[in-house]
Amino acid sequence: MTPDELARAEPDAPRALADVARRLMIYAHRGARAHAPENTLLAFRLAMALGSDGIECDVQRSADGGLVVIHDATLDRTTTGKGRVSARPLSGLGVLDAGRGQRIPTLEEVLAFARESACWLNLELKAETPEEARATGEAMAPALAALAEAWRVRVLVSSFDLAALLMLKRAQPWLRVATLHGVREWRRRDILAPALEMGAEAIHPGVSLVTSGLVRRAHDHGLRVNVWTANRTSTILGLMELGVDGLFTDNPERVVILRTLAASGSQLL
User: What pTM did the predictor assign?
Assistant: First the structure.
């Protein structure tokens, strides 16, 4: 190959990385949880102050069918309460301290925050059993249906429970959904198939599932690739080099810095 042919055959790496950086979406994973109590309004406010495009949070049901934002099935790790989230009524969950005087927010409060902040929002439907997932999905449906049409484009719903996600998508075809994939369950399975079957807009694989081939195939099928959870500088850069579309991170400021440098064409490391 001549030098000119070689230049045409091999894309300019800094330019390619700059293109990826310019379209990269940053989701603060449970808010800026490296700096504030996870899944609290404080963590969400801080995430936006640090430059996140959006927030990711987890939705579960209370004993009386209310919708709250908390990750674990039990209260012990992140609040002053004990026992299962689903065993307490909404009023009983609202009085617990979730860290630094913060409360467990309701889904309604998080939706209001997202509207006021004009941020992107990824709601993860959380459940330990298929039955719980279906019930939580059914409880979420009215809140999603009530979203103003102009704002629906900013809300993305994801879940590891693909049956519950499909149920929501069939009931509300306009809904933006993404399939979640953990390493243990999906290492040797076709990640794209369920996403394509339900008309998802994205796949959300764990970091170690992501390869250049997966990203390329997803893009060939019109799917975005948003990856969890990227915190180390080397991980963030590696995923950007693979051409992913979005990152979930506990440290949004790290991704903001690297995205800004890459988008400018600067040398990163």
Answer: 0.94
Asked whether residue 122 is domain-assigned, the answer is no
Q: Which of 35, 71, 204, 221 is catalytic?
A: 71
From residue 143, alpha-carbon distances to 48, 134, 250, 265 in Å are: 23, 15, 27, 42
Residues sharing a CB contact under 8 Å with residue 13, sequence separation 6 or more, in sequence order: none
CATH of the domain at 232: 3.20.20.190
DSSP 8-class letter at 157: E
Catalytic residue among 29, 181, 219, 221: 29
124 inside domain: no
DSSP state of 26: E
Measuring CA to CA, how many Å separate 120 from each of 34, 146, 157, 262? 20, 17, 11, 22
- Is 221 part of the annotated catalytic residue set? no
Domain that holds residue 36: 13-57+133-263
Q: What's the number of domains the chain is made of?
A: 1
Judge whether 204 counts as a catalytic residue: no
For the chain, give the longest Cα–Cα distance.
72
pLDDT tens per residue, range 138-173 = 999 999 999 999 999 999 999 999 999 999 999 999
